[in-house]
Amino acid sequence: MTSTNSSLSNMRRLVAQLKLEASVERIKVSQAASELQQYCLMNAGKDALLVGVPGGSNPFREPRSCAVL
Fold first, then answer.
1. Is residue 50 a contact partner of residue 44, using CB atoms and an 8 Å limit?
2. Is residue 46 part of a domain?
3. Sign of CA dihedral 41, 43, 46, 50
């Protein structure tokens, strides 16, 4: 009986997931690629990997050496 209830519960979850996936709006890959390319070009000036990080605000910069006298 427990196995049947578990199986039924799993099937209900699967059906709910499939309904959710079926309701997702789809677009063509070419359209998605074009939109992604436009987004990247518009935001290239803000990308730290392309323009670098200003020295003062870089949390990963090399620590300054401290001389203790």
1. yes
2. yes
3. negative
- Count other C-beta atoms under 10 Å from residue 64's C-beta: 6
Q: Number of structural domains, the chain?
A: 1
Q: Are 34 and 28 in contact (CB under 8 A)?
A: no
Q: Model-level pTM?
A: 0.49
pLDDT tens digits for 21-46?
Answer: 999 999 999 999 999 999 999 999 98
Closest CA to 23 of 15, 32, 31: 15
Q: Cα–Cα distance between 31 and 38 in angstroms, integer?
A: 11
Domain membership flag for residue 59: no
